[in-house]
Amino acid sequence: MPYTHRVTPGSHVKLKDHDAGETAGLDKAAGHARFAELNAELDTLQEEMYAAGRNSVLMILQGMDTSGKDGAIRAVMANLNPQGCRVESFKVPTEHELAHDFLWRVHRVTPELGMFGVFNRSHYEDVLVVRVHDLVPRDVWKQRYEQINAFESLLAANGTIVLKFFLHISRKEQEERLLAREQELGKAWKLSAGDWREREHWDAYQEAYEDALSRCSTDVAPWYVVPANRKWFRNLAITETLVETLRPYRPSWKQALEEMSRARLAELAAYRSQRGG
Ligand code: ADP
Question: How many domains, the chain?
């Protein structure tokens, strides 16, 4: 059974129906062991994808504050080849960015073939924080779901494998994580009064997430709900979903690599015979 929930296109997501504390019957030790195996396989898959240059990966991470986007990136990417990876974080847009359409700053940094791209927040903020805080009129953000689907389908048609992860934590878990930050000086740098302010809009955010997940989960760019109350399970679930998604591409990447090898060997043989002749 997969550890994440893949949102069926056209279905309506109710986050309350998903247990953020789910661990699929695993304990932490078993989870860590499985994670290590899958992470090693992910390393191999990334190396082959990088060399073959036929596809790229775009992994989008979204979730409420403290849901573990940074931690997930650290754990899942830890063993990958940094040369083939790029992480992009999306903050409050600058004036220059706001003077363009909302996808402009995003499209500029989508991963080229061979690259493993990660978005820490993404264009989904434009139907999340923007919607919750009325930063643009309703008529404007309402159109964005379709625009996002068209954009992601363009990426997919050009070889990008798009996976979108919603890190699902409970309201109580968020409170505990915020309070833990106050209690440890070593963690207090992560604190922000804004996190508590945003927490007051919890229900509006959950509703905005439900709409984004329901309207923008497509066959070529699916959304996955990740039970994220337990950090070790969150990392395992993301890694498993990545590996399961990328594994079927392996034969095509191997074929590309073999073709490249044959072409290089033929080139070398031609060079040698020229020199010898
Ligand atoms: P982190 O991702 O670690 O929380 P920050 O504390 O800098 O990083 O948060 C980034 C902030 O930027 C978030 O509050 C997020 O909602 C905001 N943001 C990102 N994209 C947009 C956007 N398009 N419009 C408005 N705010 C945005």
Answer: 1
